[in-house]
Amino acid sequence: MSNFFSMLFRMKYIDRWSLMRNSRPETLTEHAMETAVLAHALALIGNTRCKKNYNADRAAVMGLFHDAHEILTGDMPTPVKYQNSEICHAFKGVEAAANQDLLSMLPEDLREHYRAPVEEDDQELKPLIKAADKLSALIKCIEERKAGNGEFASAERSVLEAVRQTKLEEAEIFIREFLPAFERTLDEMRQNS
Questions:
Q1: What is the pLDDT of residues 16-62, one digit of tens each?
Q2: What is the mean pLDDT of residues 100-110?
Q3: Domain residue spans of the chain
Q4: How far apart are CA 137 and CA 156, in angstroms?
Q5: R_g (Cα) of the chain, nearest Å
Q6: b/e 36-74 (16+ beta carbons within 10 angstroms → b)
Q7: Which residues make Cβ contacts (< 8 Å) with residue 44, sequence separation at least 6?
Q8: Residues 125, 62: contact at Cβ < 8 Å?
Q9: How far apart are CA 170 and CA 131, in angstroms?
Q10: 57, 130, 148, 161: which has the highest count of C-beta atoms within 10 A?
Q11: Has domain 4-15+25-179 been given CATH number 1.10.3210.10?
């Protein structure tokens, strides 16, 4: 009997943004799905507009699994995780151990198929996944601001800067062409489609 999938499906019980007052909670499941969609989009933008040759489907799968370790570790708040290099290094070790624990729950013949997405072991796609992860956080900040929650104002500025620091042309294109729509209401989006 393998516990891998039943463990993965516990992502819905992990809340993100634990240090912030949220107008609406966000689960790890929601974040993983959004990151997968964004990673896929960034890969397609890269292929179509930037003459890259990404595997967009693989990017989506990596986005789905990029924070799977948080099922075992919980969501470590960014200000804590990156407070200093020692904490960051130690937590990277905790994440790696959690990934190994998850992979060990798979039957041997399936383990290698899941290793790369769980461990984010694709150096070409890793920056894209990081940008998609940050874009998902940025969208959460925008949604919280739109709901009247000023708690996310400084997070929004710092996450936008973090996306820009990736220096990915694909991310800049997404910010320019797609991010403004997250400011719109449902009625405004339907009128402009």
A1: 998 889 999 999 999 999 999 999 999 999 999 999 999 999 999 99
A2: 96
A3: 4-15+25-179
A4: 8
A5: 17
A6: bbbbbbbbbbbeeeeebebebebbbbbbbbbbbbbbbbe
A7: 54, 56
A8: yes
A9: 9
A10: 130
A11: yes
